[in-house]
Structure formats: structure tokens, C-alpha cells
Amino acid sequence: MGPHQTTHRIVMFSDENMWDIFSDSQNNICYRSLKENMGWGNPHLITTNAKEEFGVCIDQDGKLHIICLSLEGRITYMHFDGDTWSEQVLGEYNIKEYDIRYPAILVLENKIHILFVFGNPWDTDIWTLYHYCWDGENWIHQRISDFTGDPEPTPYSYKVYDRDIHLSYRENSEGIYRVLHMKYHTDLQKWLRLSDEPIVEYKPLNSPMELNMYEYVLEWINKAQAVYREHITIAREADELRRRSMETKRRWELILEELEDFRIRIKKSQNKNPLKRIFQSILH
Predict the structure, then answer these.
(1) Is the Cα torsion angle 7, 20, 157, 79 positive or negative in sign?
(2) 91: Cβ contacts below 8 Å, ≥ 6 apart
(3) Is the residue at 237 inside a domain?
């Protein structure tokens, strides 16, 4: 982000209290709460010496999580439990050689996930997507993917579908933009590339479609997965109906076999009773 630009994130706690968390033009991250019928209150300082970009989320228990970057090159995680702030430095990097962009944070199934882009924009156009995960005891970090970008990398986009994190990002391959897709498999605790082929490949455009390409891709993925899940459900239901139909057919065959056995026993019984035969002959 350029100088004097600010980032605003609006969050709502479980008690419906609303905060505007923002970076000001003096390298501070602050918050202000929404006062009923009075607008936003006065700002309160969260941290100083911070870059404009940061990530924030509220977990299922109403706790606040923030990931931010210091001007000195520290990656800092902050937590607010409703009463007390705490912070932890996850790592440090040389700001003269590297840069970190687009930090994001989310909580999924009681695990904290942090995403960001890391690279050296002054020497190479190679950027790396990184992932930190707090599993309840330790921070586990892993490289998601390397990609060729521009000195100013394009923001990535992510969403959670069916307990997994789906992430799309754009790389610049010899003047051709390629939108790629990665998936964090929660059970396997690893990132998977679902295909080596890009989801979208196109030449640079100056249009709203280019700016919203990642959202389009993720929405398409979501729709495709929904259709696939419905197909699997219908196929399973069809298999179950087929199995039940076969069971019913077999039960009917057994009933017919029992009926035939019963008729044979009746006939044998009739053959052994001559008086009954005489009586039946008189009736007929």
C-alpha cells in the first residue's frame, strides 16, 4: 500500500458490540467502538510501529485475533479475550531484502490459520505464499506455493468450504495471467494443488472482471463442488434404493417359495386322507 493509506476492518463480537479496527497515517493500529445512536467513539491504541496491512477475525467464542507486521520486520500475532490483550512474535525478516504483503487470519475448528505473501520485490518477481497454523500447542508453518508475480503482487483470495481452506492467486507467466487454486485439507493438515493447469488463463485486462477474478473463481469452485456433492448424494441414494429393491425382490421370492412349499404340503396331506378325497369329489 502507498503512503498515508489506511486499512479498516469492521468486526462484531458475540454481544453485538461492533469495532472498527484501522491503521492510521502514523503507523498505528487502533480501534473504535460503535456507540448506539452516537456513531463511532474515540480511537484506542492497539499497537504502534505497524505497517498499514493487517488481518483480523473473531472466533466462535467471540475472541479477537489480529496478525500484523512491524516496521522493523516482525510478524506479530495479537489476541484479545474480552479483557486482556496478549501478543506473540511469530518470526522476523530483513526488511531491506524482503517484504510481506496481505496478512490474513482465520480460525477454523479451534485452530488459528495465518496467511501472507513473502518475497523480494527489489531483486526478483518470485513470491511465496506462506501458512502458519496454531494447533493448540505449537505454531506449524509451511510454504503453500511459489509464483511469479509483479513487483506489486496481486492480492490472493480465500474462502472456507466444507472444513477446508480454498485459496486462489494469480501469477504472471511471460505476460499471461494464470489463476491457480490450492486447497488446505484440514484432516491431512497439508496444502494440495488440485490441478497443475490454471483455472483461468488470460492476457492483462483493465476491467472489473480482472479485479474480481479471484472471487469469480472461488464462487465457481463452490458451485462446482455443490453440484458434485449433490451428484454423489443422489448416486448414493440410488445405490441404496437399488439395494433395498434387491432385498425386497429377494424377500418376495422367498415368500413365493414358502407358498409353493405350503401348497405341496397341502396336496400331500390331501392324498393321505381318502375320506377328504371322496368328499371333495362329491362337491365337484
Answers:
(1) positive
(2) 74, 75, 141
(3) yes
Identify whether residues 262 and 149 lie together within a single domain.
no
Q: What is the pLDDT of residue 198?
A: 75
Residue 89 lies in a domain: yes
**pTM, entire model:** 0.71
Which residues sit opposite 180 in a β-bridge? 169
15 lies in the same domain as 85: yes
Are residues 231 and 172 in contact, defined by beta-carbon separation less than 8 angstroms?
A: no
**Residue 155 DSSP label:** P
Q: To 10 degrees, the CA torsion angle through 239, 242, 247, 251?
A: 170
Percent of the chain clearing pLDDT 90 (strictly above): 44
Q: Which residue range(s) make up the domain with 275?
A: 231-283
The residue type of 110 is N
Looking at per-residue confidence, does 89 or 232 come out higher? 89
